[in-house]
Design goal:
ZnuA-like; transport; globular; Bact_metal-bind_prot9; alpha/beta; Rossmann fold; 4-stranded parallel beta sheet; Periplasmic solute binding protein; Lipoprotein_PsaA-like
């Protein structure tokens, strides 16, 4: 009888899914692509939320408390909301560094500030944290997730590697398609509300010449807004790229006065209804810009 119980316990353990909490929807999409049926992914933030600010609701505390593993964006993007959530969840498994994966450590960050004082606004000391919007970074992140899951769940490592191979094959096809679609916009000048799209613009050779925020995280002032309108009338940028989580009132005013179109764009999976996975995130971005 004891042998039967041991066999059943082993069977349950082998068939048990890893519960992986992730900070943002793009990480959930990537983790599900690699983990497949062997993981249960719990997403903490929603795609249309400001990624810098997430309220630690009871449902999120439960997700963190029940998680075996945690995958985060890093580069201080979660610094304002994730540490309190971890403290309230009191999950001992997530106190072990081996059960944590910080994706920012797997890519090269841009916009690293030389001065991290408040004089520069709400700067991120490690660099711009929105690195997932460079589609060339996604295979690097997929590699990291595959290694992480394989280390924590070696019984399914072969399947994770197979999923990675298929994912990267498909992603390379999309990369070529997106490069072709964006080629005509190379060299265009852009206005943003917040520098969330810098990686995307760098990938395809576009340039930000101004932001609606005078500094990152600082609301637009009347003086800055009028200076920006003057600049736009002179430079005639291609468009105003506006994320979905900042208010559009000032952007719409600037668009009206400058004659430059304003386009609401997704920064993450789920930020708009069409951007429901990683591929459609970039499809939606590119279609809106053309």
């Amino acid at each position: 009888m004891r042998i039967i119980f041991l066999f059943l316990a082993l069977l349950v353990n082998v068939n048990a899914k890893l519960t992986v909490a992730v900070s943002y929807p793009y990480i959930a999409s990537l983790t599900q692509s690699i983990g497949g049926d062997n993981v249960r992914v719990e997403t903490l933030a929603q795609g249309n939320w400001d990624p810098h600010f997430v309220i630690p609701r009871p449902s999120l505390i439960t997700k963190v408390r029940d998680a075996d593993l945690l995958i985060t964006n890093g580069a201080d993007l979660e610094i304002g909301w994730l540490p309190p959530l971890l403290n309230r969840a009191a999950n001992e498994r997530l106190n072990q560094k081996s059960n944590l994966l910080e994706l920012s450590k797997k890519v090269t960050l841009i916009d690293v500030p030389s001065d991290i004082s408040r004089a520069g606004g709400d700067v991120h000391s490690e660099g711009n944290p929105h690195f997932h919007l460079d589609p060339r970074n996604i295979p690097l992140l997929a590699d990291a997730v595959t290694i992480f899951l394989s280390q924590k769940d070696p019984s399914h490592a072969t399947q994770y590697r197979q999923n990675l191979t298929l994912f990267k094959q498909q992603w390379s096809i999309h990369l070529k398609r997106w490069e072709n679609q964006m080629a005509a916009l190379r060299g265009e000048e852009i206005i943003q509300y917040h520098p969330v799209f810098n990686y995307f613009l760098r990938t395809y050779g576009l340039k930000t010449i101004g932001t609606i925020e005078p500094l990152a995280g600082i609301p637009p002032s009347s003086a800055h807004t009028m200076k920006l309108i003057t600049l736009m009338k002179e430079k005639k940028p291609y468009m105003i790229m506006h994320d979905v989580y900042h208010p559009t009132k000032t952007g719409e005013f600037i668009a009206d006065k400058s004659g430059v179109k304003l386009v609401l764009l997704p920064h993450d999976v789920g930020a708009t209804s069409r951007a429901d996975n990683l591929v459609s995130l970039f499809d939606t971005l590119i279609q809106a810009m053309r």
